[in-house]
Amino acid sequence: MSDQAAKLRKQLLEDENNHRAKTISVVSGKGGVGKSNISINLSIELLKLGKKVLLIDMDFGMGNVDVLLGLQAKRTIVDLFQHYDTFQEIIEIGPHHLAYISGGSGLTNIFSIKQDRLDFFFEQFEQAVTEYDYIFFDIGAGLQKQICRLYLQQTSVLL
């Protein structure tokens, strides 16, 4: 009779070697309900537990993660989509060593995201999921159709 737990031990070892971050989107159809506060506080609590966390503010028009952290980001997620800046170039470090990407505030022109730019985002994201334990998407209200598709493709849990 073979060891029944052998397969489980093998799978556990494979899972450890193929580490991928858990991705969580914080979503609501209405603005001002506390999505950013929830994202920030959950991220910081996970950091306190020794987890590596990346928080991405995906609100292109009214991003406020950096403001709530009391910081001013040099670059935003818009720089990735418009100028092909990498995650490493746009990640900022906040309290408790929280890695975050700002969404930018006061952006008045909503831009259309072309497939090559989405592909670039996915390349950057694929690298990030091997470097972090959790990746939070703080999603703005009033999503564009393309952005909605992006979240659904890359997110394992929707709140």
Brief rundown of the structure:
This protein is an alpha/beta fold. The protein has seven helices and six strands, in the order H-E-H-E-H-H-H-E-E-H-E-H-E. It comes from Paracerasibacillus soli.
Brief descriptors of the model:
159 residues, alpha/beta, six-stranded mixed β-sheet, 14% strand, globular, P-loop_NTPase, ParA/MinD_ATPase, ATP-binding
- Which fold does the CATH topology refer to? Rossmann fold
Total of DSSP H or I helical runs spanning 4+ residues: 7
Task: List the uncertain runs.
Answer: none
Mean pLDDT: 82
Largest sheet: spatial strand order: 3-4-2-5-1-6
Fourth-level CATH superfamily: P-loop containing nucleotide triphosphate hydrolases
What is the CATH class designation?
A: Alpha Beta
Approximate strand percentage? 5-15%
User: How many beta-strand segments?
Assistant: 6
What is the name of the CATH architecture?
Answer: 3-Layer(aba) Sandwich
